[in-house]
């Protein structure tokens, strides 16, 4: 029987198909072809664990013995890639990375030697879809903003008693229509809905207070995002900071309290750098009509009245 396995490696993400009766050694051969690596370790599962790649295991065990159907194998190089292989094509960076108070993305990581890597902040584009991009990227969802907005709107439509005007603060049909607009921010309501749709706990860490808001109960896996007042970013684990984001680990078991504490440590470091916007009294400007207001309450009211939802923080000196 053929099975599919996804591979995450320094040269990107790919899929391979292999017979479940094939030996582990045959699987290793396919990984070498896909990655142009000769020596590496393989990790899989949540949390990541090492696959036994000993000569005996490669020759005497089969793919089906390891339960790899549908798994993602993370390839950790043990030596540099062969020079004969061309480097991966560069991916254009986001047009507007979110860097409040001058914080640079390469400052947003903490070494985690006990797990052989780093806990890192993956900075999302400042395009009003940061929450959807942060969550969707953790689950490798294609075109997350468009996909998740539609799913949220459909969910609200299918659960009218749960998501009524009292909860949404507006007529459900208006709320759904607004959420489908790419300039509309997502927040707690959308996180709660996405948690239920994807059956995953979402932990949102507030940089200013270090509070952890949990969306979804009794789930097996979790993802972690970071909230900095008017923006969301994604928390990930990287074995090496030079690896592409496709090789990140972004899901963990919900009983893995160590990763949540490590993420809070990173949030505390960012807090000391003032990587947040105080939404109670910050001055905000509508980038559509140049309206100026104060705090999220006034911004939300402006959105309701005008349907404008593209804002920027004004620096007052």
From TrEMBL:
Residues 85-97 have a biased composition (Pro residues). Residues 119-238 form the OTU domain. It is found in: Cytoplasm. Its EC number is 3.4.19.12. SUPFAM superfamilies: Cysteine proteinases (SSF54001). It catalyses: Thiol-dependent hydrolysis of ester, thioester, amide, peptide and isopeptide bonds formed by the C-terminal Gly of ubiquitin (a 76-residue protein attached to proteins as an intracellular targeting signal). One of its GO terms (molecular function) is cysteine-type deubiquitinase activity. Its main location: cytoplasm. Residues 78-110 are annotated as: Disordered. Keywords: Cytoplasm, Hydrolase, Metal-binding, Protease, Thiol protease, Ubl conjugation pathway, Zinc, Zinc-finger. GO terms for cellular component: cytosol; nucleus. Gene3D superfamilies: 3.90.70.80, Phosphatidylinositol 3-kinase Catalytic Subunit, Chain A, domain 1 (3.10.20.90). Pfam families: OTU, OTU1_UBXL, zf-C2H2_OTU1_C. InterPro entries: OTU1_Ubl, OTU_dom, Papain-like_cys_pep_sf, Znf-C2H2_OTU1-like_C. Signal peptide: none annotated. GO terms for biological process: endoplasmic reticulum unfolded protein response; ERAD pathway; protein deubiquitination. Hydrolase that can remove conjugated ubiquitin from proteins and may therefore play an important regulatory role at the level of protein turnover by preventing degradation. This is Ubiquitin thioesterase OTU. It comes from Rhypophila decipiens.
């Amino acid at each position: 029987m053929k099975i599919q396995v996804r591979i995450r490696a320094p040269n990107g993400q790919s899929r391979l198909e292999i017979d479940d009766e094939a030996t582990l050694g045959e699987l290793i051969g396919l990984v070498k072809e896909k990655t142009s690596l000769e020596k590496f370790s393989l990790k899989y599962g949540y949390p990541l664990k090492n696959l036994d790649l000993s000569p005996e295991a490669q020759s005497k065990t089969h793919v089906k013995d390891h339960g790899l159907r549908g798994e993602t194998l993370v390839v950790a190089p043990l030596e540099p890639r062969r020079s004969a292989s061309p480097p991966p094509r560069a991916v254009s960076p986001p047009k507007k990375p979110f860097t409040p108070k001058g914080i640079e993305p390469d400052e947003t990581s903490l070494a985690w030697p006990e797990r052989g890597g780093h806990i890192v902040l993956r900075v999302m584009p400042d395009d009003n879809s940061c929450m959807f991009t942060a969550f969707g990227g953790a689950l490798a969802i294609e075109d997350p903003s468009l996909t998740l907005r539609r799913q949220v709107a459909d969910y609200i439509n299918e659960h009218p008693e749960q998501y009524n005007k009292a909860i949404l603060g507006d007529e459900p049909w208006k709320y759904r229509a607004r959420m489908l607009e790419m300039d509309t921010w997502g927040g707690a309501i959308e996180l709660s809905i996405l948690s239920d749709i994807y059956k995953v706990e979402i932990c949102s860490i507030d940089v200013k207070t270090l509070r952890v808001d949990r969306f979804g109960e009794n789930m097996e896996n979790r993802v972690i995002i970071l909230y900095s007042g008017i923006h969301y970013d994604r928390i990930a684990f990287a074995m090496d900071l030079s690896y592409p984001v496709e090789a990140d680990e972004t899901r963990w078991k919900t009983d893995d309290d160590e990763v949540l504490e490590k993420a809070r440590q990173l949030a505390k470091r960012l807090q000391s750098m003032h990587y947040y916007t105080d939404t109670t009294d910050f001055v905000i400007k509508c980038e559509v009509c140049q309206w100026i207001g104060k705090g999220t309450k006034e911004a939300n009211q402006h959105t309701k009245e005008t349907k404008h939802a593209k804002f920027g923080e004004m620096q007052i000196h």
